[in-house]
Amino acid sequence: MQNVSVILAADINMNLHGYNIQGSQDEARLLARNNLRLISLRWYYIAFLVGYATLILVMASDSNRQVIAYGAMLLVTYLINAILLFIVKKFETNLVTQRIVIGAQLSLDLAVCSVVTYVQGGVESRTTALYAIPIIASGLTFSSRLIVPVAMMSGAAYSLTILLHAWLSDGSVDWVTHAVPVVFYPILFLVLGRITQFLSDIETVGIREQAYNSFLSLLAHQLKHPASATKTIVDAIVHDKTATHTEQTLHHLEMLKGENENQIRLIDNLLEAAPRTRIEEHSEEVNVTRLFEQVAHKVAVSHQRLSDLVKDESASKPVKVGGNEIKLRLALTNIFDNSFRHTPEGSLVHYGIRCESGVVTLTIRDEGVGMSREHLTNILERFNVESLNGLGSRHVGGLGLGLFVARQVFSAHDGEIEVKSKEGQGTVVTVRMKGAR
């Protein structure tokens, strides 16, 4: 039993460096980096904007009052930007503070756009494009959820600015002149916001998928330890020479061992379905003929249906492929397990292997319940819950990961998997890989 303790202690030291699950502080740091990017960018575009507008005014010999207004705006914006920079760095891990800074930055950009529009003459200004800055910044720098609200705020800010300028300058609003820009530009900003949201969502999907994979990987690693510990303890009890076990106890231990192996295989499927960011594949020459035989025999025995397993005519000489034997074993186990699960006792499961022109073909054919064309379409997808639910009372357990993982493994070995099935007529799974005799 001392070996059990050693194995358990070694199993606890799991390497989780390849996984990244974000907490509130990590999210705050991410927002802080995005805040810093926009703050850094503002130093340049505000200086360019004010410098360009001032140059135009000087060349046009316009009022010095407008030049002074732009200078004051530059100083105030730089001061606020410096304050925001200090807050972001000071409270880098405070999520609430970073979110407040996001709102402050977007509000500052809208205020700058409105001041420039007002100084340039309201509706007669040519500064409408400036309002695209907070819209694009909200999506590409922060969150796609902010884009449409910011686009609506940009439209409202522009409309209120030109109306306020007309009211203060002329004492009234000429609706004939202002009706078109008040209606058209807010709609244009909203369209721009939707386009920016679409582009932002493309990147967001990848980020969510990465976080989802990381969660599954970490979950699988946490489950792997107690499952492996259970296997070690059961093996130790079974092989303990000093203990006396009744026939019934041994039978129950064998049942427990079989269920434990199924649990470990499901966890391995989770790990394979959610890859790490960095993975080192071990590659070797694998005798796939022997591996195929071993997996077929072991799965048939685990289902207590060795008499239902039939080997078709196969290659006479051993066939070898280059790859990872552990992953190939997992993939083949998934396929055979599916065949036996969905085949009633007494119905046969056939398997065979061929090698022609450097291509190894593995075939697993059952006489089970089969699948409809609708279920067959998505059978190789991850967590194919809809297809599983569609089987109703025929669904015999599993996570909907088996064939997905098999496809992942064989694709990594430059191979492919093909599934053909008809409802009530069984299923044929064909795997093709590069190999040689």
Low-confidence stretches: 1-22, 276-280, 385-397
Percent strand equals 5-15%
So how many helices? 13
Multimeric state:
single chain
Q: What percent of the residues sit in helical stretches (DSSP H or I)?
A: 55-70%
List keywords for this structure.
437 residues, alpha+beta, Heat Shock Protein 90, 13 helices, elongated, disordered N terminus
Overview of this protein structure:
The protein has 437 residues and is an alpha+beta fold. It folds into two domains: 1-280, no CATH class; 284-434, Heat Shock Protein 90, CATH 3.30.565. The protein has 13 helices and seven strands. It has helices at residues 2-12, 24-59, 64-90, 95-119, 132-142, 147-170, 175-238, 247-273, 288-302, 325-341, 373-377, 385-390, 402-412, and strands spanning 284-287, 309-311, 320-323, 349-356, 359-366, 416-421, 427-434. Strands 2-4-5-7-6 form a five-stranded mixed beta sheet, covered by helices on one side. It has a two-stranded antiparallel sheet with strand order 1-3. A hairpin with a 5-residue loop joins β6 (416-421) and β7. Mean pLDDT is 78; it is low at 1-22, 276-280 and 385-397.
